[in-house]
Amino acid sequence: MIRLAFRNLFQNKARLVISVGGVALALLLILSLDAIFSGVERQVTAYVEHSGADIWVSQADVRNMHMASSSLPYSVARKVKYVPGVASVTPILYLTNNVVSGDERSLAYIIGLPENAEFGVPWSISSGSSLPGKGEVILNRNIAANSGVALGDEVEILGDEFKVTGFSEGTASLVNSVAFITMDDFEEMRGSYNTVSFLLVKVSAGESPEIVTDRIEAQVRDVTAQTKSDFAAQERQVIKDMSTDVITIMNLIGFLIGLAVMALTVYTSTLSRRREYGMLKALGARNSDLYVTVLAQAILSVILGFLFGLILTLLLTVVIPLFGSNLALEVSRASLFKVGSVSLVIATVSAMLPIRQIAGLDPAMVFRGR
Predict the structure, then answer these.
(1) Which end of the chain is more exposed for a tag (fewer CB within 10 A), N or C?
(2) What is the largest CA-CA distance in the chain?
(3) What is the pLDDT of residue 334?
(4) Would you list the DSSP string of 294-342?
């Protein structure tokens, strides 16, 4: 019966291409949306993940950067530094603002770095300086290119002009980018001194970040301390909360398209071979055997569609960045499991209607010339 399903599926090449192609495109929609979402999550947390810090310390009850504000007295940095297990502390200033170049505006995390900062610095420089100096800024290369900004040009941040002295890589997403200036410039523009936004903590060798995190919260008042992984998870959760409804709706649309395509394909394919199935029943084949044939044909179609959809998605993950886009696709295991499960559901449901047709077949129709 499996061989019969395989032969039926590949007998008509045009129908095979249409059916498998339709399923592949439907599953491509789900895979690509998940890949875009995973890519955005990775990009949004890139600064946290590449900061080099083991622990992030913020104002009490502030647990992420995106759409949040944190302010700590500079004295807190000294208190945290004396907590057992803390090797070093790097304070940074942060806010979200526009980087303006002519008529072009791009939203960015503006990071104020202290002189000779150990952590929280640009982790990949494509050209120019690796750290900003007085009156200087380091921008993301793609953002700068899209705005027509070159090294040595000036951009406006918080109402002041800054000279672009470096381009970083991996610091932009669909949501925003990261721009680096000095802490002194940041303080002058904001008019706020002796305060910091976050403390980037490195623990001593052999110490557990989780244990040191608990010590910081126990010994330093009015702060929230989180391990890097916990802080990044909070950033991702914000993005999920903002886009879950959209992703769910689009995935549902992809599921329904795949279901409709598969159901129609298997249904018409089965009806076109009613005479063959009737012959098999006349020769003694049981309904259960024919059910297995139809179900196997549906599953084979979906498996092929899933593989082609996955190949197309992987190609997109490679091709899209080549065009200088800040859109990054990342195929995750969770996405593969979800889409694989959806594919099996599509295969099973799409086989239901044809199976009902098979159950009602009259073997005598073969001999009546129908």
Answers:
(1) C
(2) 95
(3) 78
(4) HHHHHHHHHHHHHHHHHHHHHHHHHHHHHTT-S------HHHHHHHHHH
Which tokens go with 269? 């394919």
> How would you classify the pairing of strands 136-140 and 195-196?
unpaired
The CA-based dihedral angle spanning residues 233, 236, 242, 244, taken in that order and rounded to the nearest 10 degrees:
-90
3-state secondary structure of 152: coil
Q: Where are the alpha helices (DSSP H) in the chain?
A: 2-11, 13-44, 46-49, 75-81, 141-146, 183-190, 209-219, 228-271, 274-282, 287-322, 333-350, 352-359
Residue pair 108/98 in contact by the 8 Å Cβ criterion: yes
How confident is the model at residue 155, as a pLDDT?
94
Cα 122 to Cα 140: distance, rounded to the nearest angstrom: 10
* Phi (first) and psi of residue 262, to 5 degrees: -65, -45
Give the mean pLDDT per block of 10 residues along the chain (370 residues): 58 67 76 77 84 93 85 92 94 91 87 91 92 93 88 91 93 85 90 87 93 94 93 84 71 72 69 68 70 76 82 83 69 80 76 68 58
Measured CA to CA, the distance from residue 183 to residue 114 in angstroms comes to: 5
Domain boundaries, the chain: 2-44+243-366, 61-221
Looking up tokens 């900004």 gives: 149
Task: Say what the pLDDT of residue 6 is.
Answer: 59
State how far the Cα of 62 lies from the Cα of 45, in Å rounded to an integer.
16
* pTM of the predicted model as reported, rounded to 2 decimal places: 0.73
The CA-atom distances, in angstroms, between 115 and each of 91, 112, 205 are: 10, 10, 24
Sole residue written with tokens 């623990």: 203
Rounded distance, CA 179 to CA 158, Å?
A: 12
